[in-house]
Amino acid sequence: MALVPMTELLAKAEAGKYAVGAFNANNMEIVQAIAMAAEKEKAPVIMQASQGAIKYAGLDYIIGMVKIAAESTRVPIALHLDHGTSFEQVVRCIRGGFSSVMFDGSQLPLEENIRITKKVVEIARPINVSVEAELGKIGGTEDDISVKESLFTDPYEAEVFVKETGVDALAVAIGTAHGQYKGEPKLDFERLKKIRELVNIPIVLHGSSGVPDEAITKAISLGVRKVNIDTNIREAFVARLRQEIENNPAEIDPRKLLGPGRDAAVELIREKIRLFGSSGKA
Ligand code: G3H
Ligand code: 13P
Ligand code: ZN
User: Ligand 2: does its nearest atom lie under 6 Å from the Cβ of 209?
Assistant: First the structure.
């Protein structure tokens, strides 16, 4: 089927109290793995393109691959810009056919984040493109843990931000980080609860790879409706690829090495879909 707006998927997730997996699409094998996993689980999914993915594959390739994946499967798929860096990039993605965009103004002063996010909503809403924004700083696992809590999302600020901008989904900083964790991440569930009390839109959890399953389940019970996974896919893909290369040092056909990597990604994504409760919800 054709690409669908992310809000459609998240509204159903809200009604059914589950979350939709947002998986980072970095190359053809991963795009195929996400589509295969979604089809096998009969689940809605979000395929998202990060800045790194756009740089690596090129925006046109990503759009082409994801559109073909969506058209050749029977499950609803949204194509989403992950951590969009500017209004101009958002416009480029919408023109190219993205059904959802994130404008990440979390590094900007609050007023500036509100101003640009609002502008994005103004152009996206009339054409049924969904908008995600970020408040608080999520960062990477390499960032200094001691300064982290001061960077978490302020629930009262979130309330004002959502009212002023009219965004469809909000990414929050509650203790997760992008990349591989060194220890076990501790999520601030009280903060999440408070945010959800004040903000009546789907909440997005970034940096979800490596977060224990029970913490993911609890976050979903408290209003998280989109769960972002990238690192776990990379790990599964590359671990199998490495194994294949080691077991078959003379193999020169990339398809024979990348295919098993893709299979490993399918399995990982299926497990995540089941964990998020979106299996059978297509
Ligand atoms: O949001 C961050 C992604 O997980 C990784 O981003 O592809 O730009 O390295 P990247
Ligand atoms: P991880 O790589 O930690 O899973 O984070 C993904 C993410 O949040 C993409 O926006
Ligand atoms: Zn992220």
Answer: yes
- Can you list the positions of beta strands (E) in the chain? 20-24, 45-49, 77-84, 100-103, 130-135, 169-172, 203-205, 224-229
pTM flag (> 0.90): yes
The DSSP output letter for 65 is H
Give the ligand whose atoms come closest to the C-alpha of residue 27. Answer: 1
Whether domain 6-276 has CATH 3.20.20.70: the reply is yes
Per domain, the residue ranges of the chain are 6-276
pLDDT at 3 over 80: yes
**Residue 166: pLDDT above 70?**
yes
Query: Contact, 263 vs 240, CB < 8 A?
Result: yes
Active site residues: 82
- Other C-beta atoms lying within 10 Å of the C-beta of residue 185: 18
Ligand 2 contact, 272 CB (< 6 A)? no
Residue type, 200: N
Query: Which residue has tokens 């009219």?
Result: 166
In three-state secondary structure terms, 142 is coil
Beta bridge partners of 81: 49, 101
Confidence of residue 215 (pLDDT cuts 50, 70, 90): very high
